[in-house]
Design goal:
Belongs to the class-I aminoacyl-tRNA synthetase family. The chain has 235 residues and is α+β, with helices and mostly antiparallel strands. The chain has helices spanning 72-79, 98-101, 141-152, 154-160, 183-200, 213-226, and strands spanning 7-15, 30-37, 48-51, 56-61, 66-70, 91-97, 105-107, 116-120, 133-135, 230-234. Bound molecules: ligand A2H. Ligand A2H is lined by residues 6, 36-39, 42, 124-125, 128-129, 131, 133-136, 139-140, 143, 194.
């Protein structure tokens, strides 16, 4: 972690009822997977959400209406930030692991698919952001490769109980990287992709269709926040 605080946008990905048994006690409440991103303008390209299977998560009461699923560390940080009701230890309603979340159907702001699914990613860190990541394979080599691994490896799907239909169609060309664990190659792919996508990219869907990514990023972020579909999170 750097010396400067990092400011993320938390995307509120709503868990769609009926809830699985582990989440049954939350039924009737608004429950969200809280995904931390630096690229809110890419949310049109979401295909799924990522969790760490062995990661520890909790369902925390964030304010009068919302329950967020995220790491305890992030819940604590958030409790001292603007969105929360009181700067107080957040109440954990249910303790969860990543395994409990795999396969959860979600409704996520700006996603083209009505429903996207929660899938396992082995490189998710639980000491960064919220431990929940939204997946945009077209703009993120990490996301691309993790989805590629799941699609290409039936044994990996089997291990985590991933059904074929949960992995939405990916949208970009092959990067010749063999798995999500090839750190050096991925670092180079990311350098190229992020730079190009951000500085040269143009939106091709949604209300900002045709506008440059760089120009509309702050607009899209503000719109998500105004619509109560996202919040600001710093750490
Ligand atoms: B970004 P930084 Cl399209 N573990 O969101 C692993 N990765 C995490 C994470 C965690 N706990 N929390 C967040 N992230 C990812 C979108 C995106 C992102 C695109 C392109 C680039 C990009 C869709 N995934 O990040 O270490 C999230 O992925 C480029 C760095 O704090 C988050 O933004 O700089 C980014 O890493 C935050 O990384």
């Amino acid at each position: 972690e750097g010396v400067q605080p990092q400011e993320y946008t938390i995307i509120k990905m709503e868990v769609v009822a009926p809830f699985p048994s582990k989440l049954k006690v939350l039924e009737g409440r608004k429950v969200f997977l809280a995904a931390a991103t630096l690229r809110p303008e890419t949310m049109y390209g979401q295909t799924n959400a990522w969790v760490l299977p062995d990661g520890k998560y909790g369902a925390f009461e964030i304010n009068e209406t919302d329950v967020f699923i995220l790491t305890q560390r992030a819940a604590l940080n958030l409790a001292y930030q603007k969105y929360s009701r009181v700067p107080n230890k957040p109440t954990c309603l249910v303790e969860l692991t990543g395994y409990d979340l795999i396969g959860l159907p979600l409704k996520s702001p700006r996603a083209i698919n009505q429903i996207i699914y929660t899938l396992p990613m082995l490189t998710v860190l639980t000491d960064k952001g919220t431990g929940i990541v939204t997946s945009v394979p077209a703009d993120s080599p990490d996301d691309y490769m993790a989805l590629h691994d799941l699609k290409a490896k039936p044994a990996l799907r089997g291990k985590y109980g991933v059904k074929d239909e949960w992995a939405a169609e990916k949208v970009c060309a092959d990067l010749k990287i063999k798995s999500q664990n090839e750190k050096d190659k991925l670092a180079e792919a990311k350098r190229l992709t992020y730079l190009k996508g951000f500085t040269e990219g143009t939106l091709i869907v949604g209300e900002f269709n045709g506008r440059k990514v760089q120009d509309v990023k702050p607009l899209i972020r503000s719109k998500l926040i105004e619509a109560n579909e996202a919040i600001i999170y710093s750490e």
